[in-house]
Amino acid sequence: MKKSQIIVGLLFLSLLVVGCDNKTKVAKEQKVDESISQKSETVDTNISKNQAKQANMVAIQVFNDVAKVGPNGKPMILVFGTNTDPYSMKLKEDIFKSKELQSRLKGEFSSYYFKAHENLRHKLFHEGEYMDVDTKTMINIYGITATPTLIFTDDKGKAVIIVPGYMPTKQFLVTLDFMLSNKWVGKGRKDGEVYEELKKFYIKNNIEVSKK
Fold first, then answer.
1. Entry pTM
2. What is the Cα–Cα distance from 119 to 137, expressed in whole angstroms?
């Protein structure tokens, strides 16, 4: 299975906040659009064991079983994280605290959470059929070098935007709105049109982004 078959035209989108510092590993050669980076804000990643347990339980309830990964007629959200990464845990805690996020991830999207440190087997929907892959293969396919990484796809399973790094709740919700707005439809990926449209959408919805 070739990368080009699944991710032709994808650009990495940098939506990193202060929480995504040097502890989040992002390859130097990764080309990202820094003009869409959210302005810095303080992110508290000190999560208690009880909070972590609750966040993990909610994640289990919100996300679908990764044995079979497909859109099921909805846009997909694929999240790659680890149990040792504080920003992956922070993202799950955000979902635990936000009933709106929980409801939308379950109702409006087909959502999946992958433990990047576990190499499990999956059936991944691709070009109208399911293919056998493992977690490591998916990480390679999408070029994932940071956790968490969020991938937003259309209802056919084709990736629209890839977000390497932690995304705060408000920004997450607005990104869901962007995906459902279909303002990305027909926009080029290689030339960054889809990300420019996302930047405009953020600004319109009061998400402050970098002016770089």
1. 0.78
2. 9
